[in-house]
Amino acid sequence: MSGTIAPADETELLAAITDAVARRSPLSIAGGGTKTAVGRPVAAPVLSMARLTGVTLYEPAEMTISALAGTPLAEIEAILDAKGQALAFEPPDFRALLGTAGAPTIGAIAAANLSGPRRIMAGACRDALIGLRFVNGRGEAIRAGGRVTKNVTGLDLVKLQAGAWGTLGPLVETTFKALPRAEAAATVALDGLDDVRAVAALAAALGSPLEISGAAHLPASVRGGAGALTLARLEGFAPSVAERRDKLLALLRAHGTSRPLEDAEAAAHWREIRGATPLAEPRDRAVWRASVPPSKGPGFVAAATAGAAS
Fold this sequence. Notes:
By secondary structure, the chain is α+β, with helices and mostly antiparallel strands. It has eleven helices and 14 strands.
């Protein structure tokens, strides 16, 4: 086996994996090819899921959508948007960061458990993933979860697959729970804060009852010469958002000069944050993802920066 294998349906996928098992040959699973820069290259034939496309079920009243793994994310989002719904976890698009082409697919989003800024309020991709079909390493078709939200006992294969990057078997179909799209949004900004003050401001916002749906600090070092920018976002019904915005402005005045952003400017900032675009340049630097408590973030960044400079 060599080159690219692109099954057109589940039967061909089963045959390809069964053959690979018999040959004891590894496979490199790909969707739209947008995350090929992640991890070490795999010296193996590419198993492309790009031909497994299409929405297999959409029930707007139940806010449930199922699609084959190679279905472009943009297609899913357009279908949901037409009914005033969305994937609440705000799936990101890392093409600018990784310097790749292609189109993000719904299967890859699930396999990598990719979530955006709204994760702090709405949960991660894995929390919205309620069912899937996949093929295991023995060439067997497996169905896990379902098309309705329910309690699960025993081994939860749905959550196990989310974030496994296909190492437990390529996904064939995914089922997600959607939520109503927010009627309105408002973003409050603070300018020029250092990392310590920014974390303190965001901690105050997140610790309040104002239901923050996005929080981010962009140091001056990633803003192309512009000053540091600290952002907190609110979403929901328009009257509620307006009231909470005013309260958030007042709350953050203790940490600096707070100001509301225009909708277009705010949307552009969150789109870039969602895709980690501010970290895309310069291309010759590595990008590391680290998970630390927010209060430890400034110290971690300072130590990492000092270590890189030494």
